[in-house]
């Protein structure tokens, strides 16, 4: 049973505050290595196993969809048992998924590959929930700083992961595995370490110390929550900004390794490009938060939309051999995603009534994940049909709804 916050021992709360953030930082670094190591080669592995460029986007799509599908069960587990078992379970599912992905590569089974990558998304879901765990036992004065440190920690693992692609390929080859399966061995080791760090060290559990669920009892349904969000102009803009940015980012990002591979790039080059992209996504998040506070949420959404549009123009015009320009495009894509996500999430959270805020945040993550999964699934056939410039152009169409909402807001 959760301990009410007003009766919890002060020493227990202080201990939870001191331990939670360092432990979560460690797990985020490990989880980031594992997730990014797989992302860097997922599209290439799917193309190799399926023998089809059109199906290559399903790799990241399955991971994103798995993360979205597992987010709600892991959140319910956290509410019932605490953050420690929930986060550890997510990493354990990611470990199982990485193992199945390696097996799928060996057997050449595309169906098994998709199943493995769905479970691989459990690690992503844990990584997303870790930022909320950082705020559970924090004081109001340190809550934002605690969250930003955990988000920032993702950068180290996420940037290091893709740069292990070449080494992972050599390790896989040395073990008699397909080279593209090798990076998933690093993912498995990273997820196992992340689960152990959380399970052994996240004590006392920050959510239990904070008193458990903020509002026990029935939660609003996804449909009811969406109706509330869509009925509030500011919340609607926040939701559309987050959904659009994630769909654009996933749709382009999953096809970039395939695009570079068609241009003869090595796994090391692919890993470097994806590392730069992920650095743009996470390393700049404190800056985007500062801009959202100082310049305003809507202005930062505008900035993010502009950066995404610039990324699509640069990437769409750059041939696969122009790796420098492709890298610039991916950096802009990451920065645009960061700005839109931070500002859009903040705008959504502060615009809805308190009684549906938690549900609105969860619904936003679910919608974001589904949008990203759909974009990733469609990106493969688009690439096969029209090439990378067509992928960029199609992603540009996805920006239209948020541009229209921003234009409507500027006229009111």
Summarize the structure.
This protein has 412 residues and is mostly helical. Helices cover 82% and strands 0% of the residues. The protein has helices spanning 10-50, 58-81, 83-107, 110-136, 143-163, 165-174, 182-201, 206-209, 222-230, 233-253, 256-262, 267-282, 285-294, 297-317, 323-351, 357-386, 388-398, 400-411.
Text of the CATH class of the largest domain:
Mainly Alpha
Number of helices: 18
Radius of gyration: 20 Å
Identify the quaternary structure here: single chain
Sheet-strand content, in percent, reads under 5%
Beginning-to-end CA distance, first to last residue: 49 Å
Q: What is the global morphology?
A: globular
Overall structural class, as computed from helix and strand content, comes to mainly alpha
The description of the largest β-sheet is:
none
Keywords: Membrane, Transmembrane, Transmembrane helix
GO molecular function: transmembrane transporter activity
Pfam families: MFS_1
Main location: membrane
